[in-house]
Protein: Trafficking protein particle complex subunit 11
Amino acid sequence: MNPGELPSEFAVRPTTFVALTGLDVVHNAIHKSVWDTFVSNRRPDRVPIVFKVLDGDHEYPKGKSKRSSYDFYVPKGILKTNWVKKHLYLVPSLVVVFYDLDWDDPMWNEKKMECETKIEIVRAALDARDTKVALVLMQKNSIVPGDDGTTKAAAMSICSACDLSTNCLFVLPHTDHLHGYILRLENAFYDLAQNYYHLKIRTVKNHLDELKTTTHQLLFVRHHFKIGFFSELRQDITTALKHYKQAYSNLLEVRSGDTHVMEVKTIAGFLNYKICRLSFQMSIPLDAISQFRRHIDLNKSKVGPKELIFQHSAWMSKQFSIFGELFHEAITLGLSAIQVQHPGFYYQQAAYHSLTRKNQCHEICKDLKNQVYPENDPLAGVDNLEYFGQRPWRPAIQSIEPPNMDREREGILAIQFKESSSVTHSMLVITLLSSAVTQFKKYKCPRMKRFLLVQMGEEYYHLKDYERSLTLLTRVMWDYRWERWWNLLHGIQLMALRCAYLMANIQEYVTIMIEALSKCVPFKDHDKRRIQSNLVRVVLGEAPEPEPDCPLDSLNDAFQVWSNRKLSEIPQTITVEMNHIVSFVDCQAWFDSSEYQIDQFITVKSCIRVSCPIPISFSKLSVLFNNHHYNQHCIFANKNELMVESGQPKCHTFTFVAEPKDLHKKIEIVGFVLQLGDESSCSIALRWLLNGDSIEVKPLWTPWRDQTAFSFQNNLVQVNKTSCRVLPRDSRIRIAINHAPPALVNEWYPFHLVFTNNESFVAENVIVTMGLKEDQDLLLHQSTHFCLDVAGFDGNIVSKLENINLEKLDPGEEVSKIVFMKPLQVDVRPIFFKISYVVEVRVGSHSIHCACSKEEELMVPTVKAFDVTSRMMSMKFENLENSLSARNSFLMMQDIVCISPCSLTILTSSLELNNGVRTVDNLILSQVENVDLETGERASECVCLVPYKEIENPISIGKYKLTWKRMICDVNIPPVETVINLPEITVTDPAFYIDVSLPANGIMRTPLMATYTIYNYTKSVCEFFLIMEASDAFMFSGQKQLRCRLMPQGKHEVKYNLYPLVAGYVALPRLKLSLTDGNIFQSLLDAAVETHVPTHIFILPQGKALGDINQINIKCV
Structure:
């Protein structure tokens, strides 16, 4: 067993072992079903028992004779190698005998004797051990002892015959409820097993009391370990942990020299494993971590013989590895770990000690070539030792000094031979590092993960697995480039260069050499010269010089592979993606301008600079575009001009003409390629892609692709122009637009357009487009109409005029057009006028057809021409509400205010009335015809209307139409008709109407006539009673009381002479009307009186006499 290695029986969780005999699981189906029920579907809620079917005469391990005293006993070791395995798998805590026997079996006595024989055979096989024996009777019926007297007597009889207590006899009916019976049996078996282990613990404790601390130190450790182990079997974790800790404390008191240090450390490792595992199981991980740290601190100095120091490193590595596994297992069961405390650190320490072990082995065993393995093998029987941790050439010896020094030296030499020949140290390190990488990746520790990957790469290199080593190193180099760890990158590249060379991997070898020549990577100057020389050799098809410090055996094979390649005879192009590395060469290309017209040459400039120690010659420079057609125009292949020295940039210029299909598109530089070598033999293509992720390397070496400008020949060069837009050729056709803003709602607003060709060539396919811009609101498009040459509107809105074909324009030719716009609502309208055409021009030696266009934009505001207000007034010019009475005339007043900034002429006006309203006069003439209005001036028009029928729902009176035009405008522009909707009214048909004829005012002491006409519009004969009440302000003559009868649709007129006595706003005599006999129309009559009969009149004071007035007038004249 290797130092520190954990035996398999220690790694399992101790579980109660119960042996089952008497079951024929092969030939008996009932026995097979019973056995399957015991062992299948063992969920965590079932008791922890391991069952095993054994023969009745199975031979168990022989028990030792009981020791009466420990006074003269000297232990030969601490813990026997077979003790744990024996109590886990070989010595059962309980043996259960199964036997088919019913209570009413006719052959009861014979079978009882047979059962007794089986019990005796089992007891004889146990050889007086304390193992319990139980009997299970398998029966067809479900009758248990105690159901009746006969059954009870039979049970007592068989217990007496087999020498069993009643609690060791069980009955198993084979019925449909077999699973339930089995569960009850398991619990009973578990209780019997617990008693067995309890008895074993008491026995060990009794032995423990007899020990002496002076001579039995080893037995203190052994006995406490046994108590802890038996407690684990009883699932008493707390007691087990207590005794394991006590055993560990006792072990610290054991004297350990170089002879026995390995045994002490081995047992210490076992005890530490048990303590840590139980601590994790009890959810006290801090105790487990603390115990492990204490364990390492106490044993790290117990090195043992210096000739076997590598065994101490192996033991240390195993301790860290085992604890890491325990920690990881606890995490999988629910324990939470943190970034600074997780299993990865312990795996890393285990790998560190394995690496130390390898170095110590190489140092100690380097002279074994001159030694011979001992003839009498000292390591014979190493797998059959009686005690853990002892040397096979001196087993069971506890003396401080070795009994035979020669044999000791031979044993040490044999271990050295075995260590150097049969242990692959690098694979041990790699396995542990791989586990550590997994943990550091899980807990998001990227730098630790990269560090461990580098170590794995080094170990693969020592194993001569160069491919895996290079894969890991290449994976890590990317991160170190990105974080600019140049010194670390330098160390990794040294090994990566050796791996690539030994593999003869030309792709990786070239890539690493290109990066090694960079200023960022701190290679020495002579190393860079050697690397550049090898790069040139690869380009020339020659084998490169070997990398320093390569293993000699691998170096010869690699040199042979390089020589057999004959690179010069195999045309090969090696492409290196420069965005992913830090290179010694940097290349940049840019446009001279960000915009070019279609008839201009596009200029692309490129520049190259290098940082290698020796001037280098490139064979070709290519610039790549998003349109591959342009790639052929930007290739430079002059080797003499591509010879570049460090610190001396080389620039080149390319020109080409854009293709017509790229008009309004972007031409982008997507990359550039710099080629080393000849394509006919071997070449290296260095490719930069501008849309890829590049490595940022500041401040030592800043690529131009990460700059916005650099200085070249004392000029600041902008290098961020990696794209340009191809624009159309500037149009030289002039667009003149004459108009008089603002536009007025509903008018035909004219645009006078004049197109003048100022080109030196004939403009062909001339197309004019105008209208509203596309990005405007939909409502604006639906309220703007355009027409060409002639104003006209058929109801279909045209918001844009397209494809107005002018065919062609000769140089200097002018063409005029007139466009009318009809705005239907107030807004500001963006109007565009665009002309497009094609001309044929020459660019250098190229003749191209250029599509040219020109666009003019106008913002045309639209305002109202008039503000028209409609009012309804009574015949006395009093404002009316919207509720009118039928057959009562009223006035419709229109107030027109000019709000246009320009002068307007009202040509005419008209009124369109809806059904229910008519004019009083049959012929109505416009009162505002040919009226000119300036801004802010007002005009009014009044029409007398009368509703002639009842209208319940509100309707508009009608429409008022104004026909107008600008005072100054073209003759051929149609006039504008503006329609104003009149107010809505409701008309009621009254039952009664009273018409009062009364002057507007009166003069004090001057009579005035008042006439009251009463109309009856009902279909009934109504009898009225009229009363004119007296008034202090008036004297009047006429009928003070009157009774009259009105026929349907009839009327009655009453006249009064009023004589005013008071001046001012005076109350008239009150007129009271009532219907006789309580007529139902009384309320309607009262409403008519309140609505139509005036209550007050304005009385002027009395003036001078007429003679006096005439005299005054004469005097005034």
